[in-house]
Amino acid sequence: MTSVKSSSANRFFPDNFIKLPHFRYEHLLGGISGGVTSTLILHPLDLIKIRFAVNDGRSAHTPQYLNVRSAFKLIVKEEGVRGLYKGVIANVWGSGSSWGLYFLYYNSLKIWLQDGDSQQPLGSLLHMFAAAQAGLFTLVMTNPIWVVKTRLCLQRNVTDTKSSHTYNGMIDGLIKIYKNEGMRGLYKGFVPGLFGVSHGSIQFMVYEEMKNSYNKRLNRPINEKLTTPYYLTFAAVSKLIAAAVTYPYQVVRARLQDQNHSYKGTLDCVKKIFRYEGFSGFYKGMIPYALHVTPNVCVILLIYEKVSERIFGFYKGLSPNLSRVLPSTMITFVVYENVSHFLLGYKK
């Protein structure tokens, strides 16, 4: 397929990019659906992960949890069941918008780089480029939401609701942070968040290469739809590889966003974590993190069935594979692959 690359008023992008023919709402819809649903179900584990991550063992402001089980018990005892869902609204907005924007932008860039030919292989570097661009764009758009979400998750027994350090919700948090800390406050944790961009780049590169290699091995087009177990396997492997390399950034980012910790910057935070907590300090919260992401496969497959049914009347019985538990991030991959393939197939 020949790309329309004639000059235009905007010399940085070709005409076909400005007209946005490669933007597909299926990717946006799938990402939002998966992010919102999984967050509503799994938020308590995310909250506990954050509290573990910011616990340096020296601050009196952070509760001391022995393990995930004790954290659940103590939170319910001191804050009630509602305490497990502090920050859930901000998390829903952040997760839904992040996954929606990420998939929309990532796949739009892929289509543009392929000149509209989905069977044209991109290679590892271009996959990393598209994922990095999508991650950076998403981070810039959503970082303020993550700052509020982190602080709401760390907010325990609220006594003075008028305090500048106490937030009544996401909007109140955004207003108070901007009023008291300016734009810099809304973008705390942005620098370590860039490591999250590298996480996505590694993850998507491995994921795409595994899919392409598998299809090539069977002498099929690289955009050939796979069965669900293969999507789950490739998503799990790519996630584990990326997480093993980049998880520490989540700890650093959470510490910087926590108003109860005072660091001069990212480097100062890294130095203090290593000095006082050792290398293991960079992996605090890893267990609740793993527990948080593991059930996502069941959630995402259910989303796929329901989204397909409601939009175009498609409905297939849930596979017995729903009972199988595989590691994380499958929420995004399975939603994207299944929703986009079925919706695009329907249009044809």
From TrEMBL:
A Pfam family: Mito_carr
GO biological process, one term: organic anion transport
Any Gene Ontology CC annotation: mitochondrial inner membrane
Keyword Mitochondrion (UniProt): yes
Primary role: Facilitates flavin adenine dinucleotide (FAD) translocation across the mitochondrial inner membrane into the mitochondrial matrix where it acts as a redox cofactor to assist flavoenzyme activities in fundamental metabolic processes including fatty acid beta-oxidation, amino acid and choline metabolism as well as mitochondrial electron transportation. In particular, provides FAD to DLD dehydrogenase of the glycine cleavage system, part of mitochondrial one-carbon metabolic pathway involved in neural tube closure in early embryogenesis.
Catalytic activity: FAD(in) = FAD(out)
UniProt membrane topology term: Multi-pass membrane protein
Keywords linked to the UniProt accession: Membrane, Mitochondrion, Mitochondrion inner membrane, Repeat, Transmembrane, Transmembrane helix, Transport
Gene Ontology molecular-function annotations: nucleotide transmembrane transporter activity
Organism from which the protein derives: Pediculus humanus subsp. corporis
Name by which UniProt lists this protein: Solute carrier family 25 member 32
Solcar repeats: 25-112, 122-213, 226-310
Transmembrane intervals: 83-105, 125-148, 186-207, 227-249, 281-304, 324-344
Family to which this protein belongs: Belongs to the mitochondrial carrier (TC 2.A.29) family.
Localization: Mitochondrion inner membrane
